[in-house]
Amino acid sequence: MAWIYLLLAGLLEVVWAYSMKLSEGFSKPVPAAITVVTMIGSFVLLAMAMRSLPLGTAYTIWTGIGAVGAFILGIVALGEPVTPMRIAAAVLIVSGLVLMKLSAA
């Protein structure tokens, strides 16, 4: 169950990062509220996952899901550039996540 909590926490991290961008520095109330609510939800789920997962594993995977998810959402929804170097960076992050998952007992 901890891995499910961690996955959901990571997905909520993508949502709050995206809504924070849309809030334009918290100047738009609806995206700002979505940011705060999903941020709290993400932290709560991360804390629940950390009950049984090691700190390093949980935190690394949580931030990795958020980073790669935000990267993909930025490309798809915001038209951010796709360059070989950015793709390579995302591949390295995912590789690290896979290794971290495989190393978890």
Can you tell me the residue ranges where pLDDT is under 50 for at least 5 consecutive residues?
Answer: none
Q: What value does the average pLDDT take?
A: 95
Beta-strand percent range: under 5%
Give the overall form. flat
The number of domains is 1
Alpha-carbon Rg, integer: 14 Å
β-strand number: 0
Distance between the termini: 14 Å
Structural class computed from helices and strand pairing: mainly alpha
Pfam families: Multi_Drug_Res
GO molecular function: transmembrane transporter activity
Main location: membrane
Keywords: Cell membrane, Membrane, Transmembrane, Transmembrane helix, Transport
Fold and architecture overview:
It is a multi-pass membrane protein. Belongs to the drug/metabolite transporter (DMT) superfamily. Small multidrug resistance (SMR) (TC 2.A.7.1) family. Gdx/SugE subfamily. The protein is mainly α and 105 residues long. It has one domain (2-103). It is 82% helix and 0% strand. The protein is built from 4 helices and no strands. Helix 3 runs antiparallel to helix 4 (84-103). The two termini are 14 Å apart.
